[in-house]
Amino acid sequence: MTQATFAAALLAPDLPCPAGLRAWNGSDPTARLAVYRNNVVSSLIDAVADTFPVTQELVGEEFFRAMASVFVRQHPPRCRVLAHYGAEFADFVDGFTPARAVPYLADVARLERARVLAYHAADADPLTAERLVSAMASGKDLGALQLTCHPSTSVVVSEHAVVSLWAAHQGHGDLSAVDPALPESALVVRPGLDVLVLRLPPGAARFVIALQAGAGLANAAALAAGAAADFDLPSALALLTGHGALITAQFPGSRIQ
Amino acid sequence: MSTLSTVPGLRAKRAVPAVPRVRRGVGLPLRAGVGLKPEHFRDVLETRPDIGFFEVHAENCMVDGGPFHHFLGRIRELYPLSLHGVGLSIGAEEPLDEAHLDRLAALIKRYQPASFSEHLAWSGHGGVFLNDLLPVPYDRATLDRVCDHVDRVHERLQRQMLLENPSTYLEFEVSTMDEAAFITEVIRRTGCGLLLDVNNVHVSCTNHSRDALVYISSLPLNTVGEIHLAGFATDRDAAGAPLLIDSHGSPVDEAVWDLYAAVLAGTGPMPTLLERDNDVPSLATLLDEARRAEELMPAPAEAEPCGICWSRS
């Protein structure tokens, strides 16, 4: 028996116990193989549950673990570092028919995944508002200014009230008062030790996404204004520096931090 | 290891050749340690408990930044560290993952652990990681492969590793030697040390109807660099025989404490980790178990432990 056969049997409970296994008392090795089968699947479900606690609260533990057991068999980890596991989970939830009754579930999962990525992301010193102001006052072509986001930064754009739903599960706000149908976008960033989750106006969300794609200040602001007529660049910059979401401000050819 | 001078009888009985090509680890202090859990980071720094060392799972540290590295770095300044791998898959049919070895080398360089250990097990195949410690047959082909893998670990990390005896639930028809003989041969051929997991001994010996004391006495105890203690869960196999499961989710069982005392009588005091990975209790509860382990350690024949510098404070 090869390890390929053994591994396949672990992830597929309907496969027969591989040949060549035995127990000292001659008992059916299938019962003993079940220990490994359970270790593999339940430890992976636990890993998914650790990353997506609010997703679990929204549907209840029993439903969540049943859903996750399908996920872990379809998408077992490809990496030995479990902190990275679960990249495909939100898309999986989107396509998981029994979860359709909770249309915002996948976006809450996206937000929770972003939090875990931020938690483990590389560290970097945030750009202070003073340094940004001095860069902007340097007399150079302001529109070409390149702002770099903190490595922990991500934006989750949702058609649902993803930030309010998540926050209500942290004890902030009344869950029954949340209208899940109101679109919200989240900024997730970890400037220090704590991961921050903030509600971003639609224009600011588009602005951060543009910055992350490498757009200069003028292009990013134009894209943001195109997405939301009320986009306000100074308040977006204040919000980002105020929460440590930027780390460098750099003109092409020179570097000012 | 200098501690072994306390058990000359064992050394005389079970001579293990010196292995000059592998630099031996600095060694953990002859005390008890506990697993370092994120929920205890702040508690450890605030209370600075009197504990011999902390152990972390290597794979939990393989992230770019964030609180884990922040707190581990600060705690490492105060305590010796044991780096315990759970994903290298030394028993795999496939070659070792060189990228994973690179990650281990980087962690060792950064945190300078007093000990690095891994398992006699495999944990993935064909690019899929199964997150469990899976059993290997004890035959000649597996022995050669495991020895090649341990040799490669030594070569890449430039330090001795400790190999942990597994907890297993199944045996293979192709096995031609018993587990203790297999482990003894890996140690003899590669010069690795033994991480003697006493709970795994109890679990495996119960599951395969072996005598735990005979199993232990068959191992080269003079190569032990660390002991693990943990709790297990109880199940039954298809014939109703007890099937113990290495769960790391409960206190150490009295049978395992007894076995531990028997091991200590042969080895003298040994760095001993209390493992708890599921249903993790308060730090104080873990420290109580660690104290019990230290109370069982006989007074060392000499005051100096095996390591060089285990207290950096």
Structure explained in plain terms:
The complex is a heterodimer of chains A (257) and B (313). Chain A is mainly α and 257 residues long. Chain A is built from eleven helices and six strands. Chain A has two domains: 1-102, no CATH class; 122-257, no CATH class. Chain A is 47% helix and 11% strand. A three-stranded antiparallel beta sheet of chain A has the order 3-4-5. In chain A, strands 2-6 form a two-stranded antiparallel ribbon. In chain A, a hairpin with a 6-residue loop joins strand 4 and strand 5. In chain A, helix 3 packs across helix 4 and helix 3 packs antiparallel against helix 6. Chain A starts with a helix and ends in a 7-residue tail after the last strand. Chain B has one domain (2-296): Alpha-Beta Barrel (TIM Barrel). An eight-stranded parallel barrel of chain B has the order 1-2-3-4-7-9-10-13. Mean pLDDT of chain B is 89; it is low at 1-25 and 302-313. The chains are: A mainly alpha (257), B alpha/beta (313). Chains A and B meet through helix 1, strand 1, helix 2 and helix 6 of A and helix 3, strand 5, strand 6 and strand 8 of B.
Keywords:
heterodimer, A: 257 residues, mainly alpha, 2 domains, three-stranded antiparallel beta sheet, two-stranded antiparallel sheet, B: 313 residues, alpha/beta, two-stranded antiparallel ribbon, 10 helices, globular, disordered N terminus, disordered C terminus
